[in-house]
Amino acid sequence: MDPSTAARPVIETDALVKVYPGDITALGGLTLNVAPGITGLIGANGAGKSTLIKVLLGLLPPTQGAAKVLGRDCVREGEQIRQLVGYMPEHDCLPPDISATEFVTHMGRMSGIPATAAKERAAEALRHVGLHEERYRQIGTYSTGMKQRVKLAQALAGDPRLLLLDEPTNGLDPAGRNAMLELIERIGEEFGISIMVASHLLGEIERICDGLVAIEAGRLLRADTVDSFTKASQMLVIEVEEGTAALLDELVRRGLEPRPYQRALLVPIGGDDTYDAVRDSVASLGLPLSRLEQRRHQVEELFRDDDQLEAVDVS
Amino acid sequence: MSVDTSPGVPGGPGARAGGNRTGVIHDLGYQRYDGPRLGRRRIIAALTWHSFRAAFGFGRGPKAKIMPVIAILALCLPAVINAFAMSQGNAQLVNYDVYNATLRILIMTLFVAVQAPELVSRDIRSRVLPLYFSRPIRSGDYPLAKYLAFTAACLVMMEVPLLVLYGGSIANVHGGAAVWAQTRALIPGLLIGLMWSVVLAAISLFLASLTGRRAFATGTVAIFFLLTFTLAEILLQVEHQNVIDHAQPANGPLAAPTASLAEKVSGLFSPFTLFDGVGRWLGGTTPSLLVPKPGGFGAVYALVLVAITVACLAGLFTRYNRKARMS
């Protein structure tokens, strides 16, 4: 990454604390620096992702600490930030009884784009998200995937410098998830818009992100580039319909380090050899293979894995 | 991907400038918006206009227009009948300050009960509010725009029939003095319309903002106005009867009884009787069917109206302030 441009973070927080009434701590001293590009914000539900987004948008005053978005202070310059930032919420947020064009045009106007330009931008934003043909249909008739695209289009309508996407793949089937992730990747790379994607599925978004930030209980757990973040946790999941024990032995014999995980086996991926070894093991035992995939991590599992790795190191 | 002529490293921040220029070759690419950005005031104005149109079903399906159109036609009916009657040589049937009291109360209740939820409950229901709050406006700007829009919409409902009445009347009178008399009578009528609009919009928007369920919102608003009006009417009748009974111990000729305090207090219970009381207090000449002449008590009517309006607006703004943080 080019250090001269990376030097200016799009998001900076400094010991950010948010305590809700009733002494509920959503953010407990979060310090972050998010570089331009696509960044994943990883955290389990309730880790403070949505609170962080609200603070960044200047909607929620932090209890302590400071936050800056695109160099502007979140408390004092919220309006300016909101002019430069597009936000896609996690939940449904679309009125069913108007067309996508009308809705995105209206939301563009609400970002301060004059009427005519807002219309043009709405048509363009909907084309970019792949809804050009259906844009005059009422939103209520759309599939979940199409609605997610409208949500993304309305965030693009105001020509943002930064997009905050909260769980953009929520409710989508695997094909829809892939399409949405490709779209986000394209917006980040080709449109030159920095993006922060909040998700609880690390395995899902890691492939489109340049950097990752993991938070837990309102604190920074880890912030790094994707490579260093996931190196230690690449796993292959192998599930056979029978003979799991035999396969375990065979894999150990071939120098791998398998461990049982539910009905399957987890094997740390060392390189291409790992795949070959697994293939050969299964083939030599003649076992009925029912699943072989790279592990999609949920964040909780990632950290559990880390703990185990550390435990191994100690021993 | 191989067609990409961008010299920059894809995915790096360097693509920011490249995406625009090189993308044009095979695709229109992403267009930056370089034009002027409207400030907060202009955004509020845009939202106000959008909501005002929505109050009459514009920008919605054809079904959404049915209710407002019927409502305004119904409200104009007395004015049309009046114009016809006057053209036949009859005296003016309908006046500007009271208009047709029953019809106006009924239709305006209907209008605010159906259209206030259209402006606010719908956005709560579809959970679109966070999108508004993520725009460069403040949390109070959304309810402000809704309130301005709905006041204007109520104003249209109130004033258009009066203007039709005015048009129909001056077409049938002769001489500048008669036209001037009509104009002078119209102005207080228009002001009363403004009073209705300012208050009705505040109450109905606040009540509608309590729920995202449109049917509930409509029910809440309608029940509030009808129930309070019925209550005030019953109390007024009871108290008025008391006054008559006390004023006439013997079977003497019907003397105009002075209203009792209880009768005046009865008028406090409904916005519509309050409107009437304030109108009469400020010099409305038409004998009203609703409230007795308030005299100095009219100030209390005015005060209560102001208090209700302020309370409803405070409630409305507080709700959206909370929603901006919590949504």
What does this structure look like?
The complex is a heterodimer of chains A (315) and B (327). Chain A has helices at 3-6, 49-56, 78-84, 100-110, 115-128, 144-156, 174-190, 202-205, 226-230, 244-253, 272-285, 299-314, and strands at 11-20, 24-34, 38-42, 64-69, 72-73, 85-88, 162-166, 194-199, 211-216, 219-225, 235-240, 259-261, 264-268, 289-294. Chain A is of the alpha/beta class. Chain A has two domains: 3-230, Rossmann fold, CATH 3.40.50; 235-294, YebC, transcriptional regulation domain (Alpha-Beta Plaits, 2-Layer Sandwich), CATH 3.30.70.980. In chain A, the strands form three sheets. Chain A has a six-stranded mixed sheet with strand order 6-7-8-3-9-10, sandwiched between helices. Chain A has a four-stranded antiparallel sheet with strand order 2-1-4-5, with helices on one face. Chain A has a four-stranded antiparallel sheet with strand order 12-13-11-14, covered by helices on one side. In chain A, helix 7 links the parallel strand 7 (162-166) and strand 8 (194-199). Mean pLDDT of chain A is 86; it is low at 1-6 and 304-315. Chain B is mostly helical and 327 residues long. Chain B has helices at residues 15-23, 40-55, 63-87, 101-119, 121-125, 129-133, 141-170, 176-208, 214-247, 261-266, 271-281, 298-326. In chain B, helix 2 packs across helix 7 (141-170). The model of chain B is unreliable at 1-26 (pLDDT under 50). Chains A and B meet through helix 3, strand 6, helix 4, helix 5 and helix 7 of A and helix 1, helix 2 and helix 6 of B.
Report how far the terminal alpha carbons of chain A are from each other: 37 Å
Q: Which series of helices and strands of chain A comes N to C?
A: HEEEHEEHEHHHEHEHEEHEHEEHEH
The shape of chain B, in one word, is globular
CATH class of the largest domain in chain A: Alpha Beta
Percent helix of chain B: 55-70%
- What percent of residues of chain B are in strands? under 5%
What Rg of chain A, in angstroms, do the CA atoms define? 22 Å
Beta-strand content of chain A? 25-35%
Low-confidence stretches of chain A: 1-6, 304-315
Structural class of chain B: mainly alpha
What's the number of helices of chain B?
12
Query: How far apart, in Å, are the first and last alpha carbons of chain B?
Result: 40 Å
Strand count, sense and closure of the main sheet of chain B?
none
- Please count the beta strands of chain B (DSSP E, at least 2 residues each): 0
Q: Write down how many β-strands of chain A occur, each being a DSSP E stretch of 2 or more residues.
A: 14
Q: Helix fraction of chain A?
A: 25-40%
Estimate nothing, just give the exact number of structural domains of chain B: 2
Overall number of structural domains of chain A: 2
